[in-house]
Write a structure and sequence with these properties.
2,3-Dihydroxybiphenyl 1,2-Dioxygenase, domain 1; alpha+beta; four-stranded mixed β-sheet; single chain; five-stranded mixed β-sheet
């Protein structure tokens, strides 16, 4: 029986830069921050579950309201970079969405901090105002404000 979504995992190029974004700028709480070396003989679990040969990484789990974000900075094997402007229609991960209290205020605050957005917040209907922004590696994050009472 599936109970719900627990976390989304993101491979990042620079853990410190990503923690500055997710922890410091977005306000997520770091629950764990650990490293594991490539040593399939002493710990075969990461190699098996990730299906990577001799993986090594720094891994951090962050809490955000009712869900978690897991960050991986792999040092082995060497990861291929993602295009920072990867279009959302390409196969694979397109975005994850964060509920916010005031999307216009968050847009201003994050824009002032250097976050790149696709556009200013727009109304998608009478109960949703939203915009897409990108993390330091170019991953897309939706910032949405939902209204219990339709506004327009």
């Amino acid at each position: 029986m599936i109970l719900g979504i627990h976390h989304t995992a993101i491979s990042v190029s620079d853990m410190e830069r990503s923690l500055a974004f997710y922890r410091d700028l977005l306000g997520m709480e770091v629950l764990s921050d650990q490293r594991w070396a490539s040593s399939a003989e002493s710990n075969p679990k990461p190699e098996k579950i990730l299906r990577l040969e001799n993986p090594a990484a720094r891994q951090a789990m962050l809490k955000c309201g009712n869900c978690h974000i897991e960050l991986f900075e792999f040092s082995n094997p060497e990861p291929a970079p993602m295009a920072e402007d990867r279009p959302v229609h390409d196969h694979g991960y397109t975005h994850f969405s964060l509920d916010v209290k005031d999307v216009d205020a968050e847009y201003e605050r994050l824009s002032d901090a250097g976050v790149e957005f696709h556009c200013e917040p727009i109304n998608l209907g009478p109960s949703c105002r939203t915009t897409y922004g990108r993390d330091p590696d170019g991953n897309v994050i939706e910032f949405q404000e939902l209204f219990e009472t339709p506004r327009w």
